[in-house]
Amino acid sequence: MASKNFHLDDFIAGWIGGASSVVVGHPLDTVKTRLQAGRGYQSMVHCMLAIYRKETAAGFFKGMSFPVATIAAYNSLVFGFFSNAQRFISKYRYGDGRHPCSMLDLTAASMLTGLVSVGLGAPVDLVKIRLQMQTQMVRPAENFQLATSVPNGSNITVRAMHSSSQTLYRGPIHCISSILQSEGVRGLYRGGGAMVLRDVPGYVLYFIPYTVFCDLLRPDATSSPHPCSIWLAGGLAGSISWVTATPADVVKSRMQADAQLYRKYKGVVHCIMHSYKTEGAQVFFRGASVNAIRGFPMSATMFLAYELSLQFFRSF
Fold first, then answer.
1. Mind listing the pLDDT tens digit for each residue in 254-303?
2. 30 within 8 A of 132, measured Cβ to Cβ
3. Strand 145-149 relative to strand 155-160, pairing
4. CA 42 to CA 36: how far, in whole Å?
5. Residues 6+ apart with CB under 8 A from 57
């Protein structure tokens, strides 16, 4: 399963942890996306009730099939790269890949992980958000009327589009195909700059708190952390990381939900300025409570499944 410095089992364990976390966290992820990129929601509870009333319980699971398949792969990349990056840094600095990493080493590995993760994470997040936002994204067309001129100069209504009978995408594959046709490969990376701003510091505040909490909760330096300690440390790390990443996450969500047909943001800076001017500074903390709540069970599940999977693989 592993060479001297490269371990494949980290990637497999990361895949298992990622798949487990999606099932736990997707409903609240949908609420978070609607709060950040949609309009008309007064609070987290109001958003949840609105989704349930208009779309039933199925509305909370919109776009879930794609994340189950792809976020598992994304977390495989994240955890596999992070763990192997630590070993390579230790090999480079201390001559031994098994040498414990310092906080500086962990910070470097975390930042590199955040940077690399955008390559796969940006398209995955884009498709997920476009599918989650379908009822919001067609809204500008609700009252749109296609008019044509007649000889006497008056206008007659030819057709009106209604959001209740239209969806932009039939599923994740159709979503990817539509984006590629209309915007090219570059379109799949819309919001990628905001994702870099979110994930580079975000993973530092994800892996380091997890390491610190695990060390604090273990009985002694030589023992392995108990599963309950892993669960608690992972949950706390997830909440810390997601809450602090909320401002950049808001910008990323808005950029990615901004479909080409009704595009209003020219770039990351324009999105930040436009959001601030129209909705004030508080807009950048929209969804922070949801992030804090969903970050705990998602990350707790992810780290626990990852660590238990690693223990299983390395028991042979």
1. 998 887 666 788 889 999 999 999 999 999 998 888 888 888 999 999 99
2. yes
3. antiparallel
4. 11
5. none
